[in-house]
Amino acid sequence: MTIWTTLAGTEFSLTSVDADGIMTRSLQCGPADGEPVVFLHGTSGHLEAFVRNLRAHADAGYRCHAIDMVGHGYTDKPGYRYEIPTYRDHLVAYLDAIGAPRAHLVGESLGGWVAARLAADAPQRVGSLQLLCPGGTKADPAVMARIRNSTTEAVLTDDIALTRKRLELLMFDPAADVSDELVEVRHAIYHQPDFVKGLPHLLCLQEPQIRERNLLTPEQLGRVQAPTLVVWSTQNPFGAVPEGAALAAAIPGARLKIFKECGHWPQHERAEAYNALSLAFLQEFAIA
Questions:
Q1: What residues contact 258, with CB distance under 8 A and at least 6 apart?
Q2: Which residues form a coiled coil (predicted)?
């Protein structure tokens, strides 16, 4: 199944949105008057991380926005470090640009880190919060090195096998979930000249001192007011289940769901189960 057949039957647009001067690639679908749901990918990722989720959410009546975050995918790549406040401010600018004073946020990995930070800093902008194997609570040198080294190797070497290896790192069952098409999409993104040039800015959160100053604090997590669903996986290569459980415990009223036999992309690897879980959660917490 390709990206196109996954989206077949759903009207969508792939466009660029001016988010306070940052041209942002955005895949939008669902009714124009539906409650907005914004999907945020992980480090070195791109909006295609959510192609298995968009149709289900659009068919349920939500206005879906899967975006490439600043410095990622085909979004602009300004020449400065991308720390969490940079991502947060870009997300706010995107919400302003689409006319969404309040939105549901779904963030995977880095995207969850960014979404949680916005929920802490501007709770009035977040209707509900889904954190899928999010980062942002630990600075594990081994994990940081794995992300930094595997991404750098794939970007600086024009060998598509290394891009495949980078994606396979994320999945419990790579044969089922890393398609040739997904590899080709990421390989093309990784080898844009501006992506290569901006790689140090994108990977700065894998440097210990920079990561430490950006970590989500207990105080910040305690400020989150949005209904929150934390999704974790038993085979998440970047953090064990207790990390997810501790995060959920730190956010008032948060729920925790654990997927078995799943890696770092639960929304992709367990799409059918995740979509049902997400839609039930969203329907419970409609934006007033």
A1: 231, 232, 233, 234, 241, 244
A2: none
| Distance between CA atoms of residues 31 and 17, nearest Å | 18
Number of domains in the chain: 1
> Residue 48 and residue 94: Cα distance in Å, rounded?
18
Q: Rounded to an integer, what distance in angstroms lies between the CA atom of residue 199 and that of residue 177?
A: 25
Question: Is this structure's pTM higher than 0.90?
Answer: yes
State the residue range of the domain holding 20: 3-138+216-284
Cα→Cα distances 225→45, 95, 123, Å: 28, 18, 6
User: What is the rounded CA–CA span in Å between residue 155 and residue 111?
Assistant: 21
Strand-pairing partners, residue 37, are 64, 104
User: What's the DSSP call for residue 284?
Assistant: H
> What would the pLDDT profile of 100-140 be if each residue is shown by its tens digit?
999 999 999 999 999 999 999 999 999 999 999 999 999 99
CB atoms within 10 A of CB 18: 12
Strand order in the sheet with 36-40: 12-19, 22-29, 63-67, 36-40, 103-108, 126-132, 228-233, 255-259
Give domain status of residue 210, yes or no.
no
Q: Structure tokens of 202? A: 């994108």
Question: Which segments within 162-249 are labelled E, that is strand?
Answer: 228-233
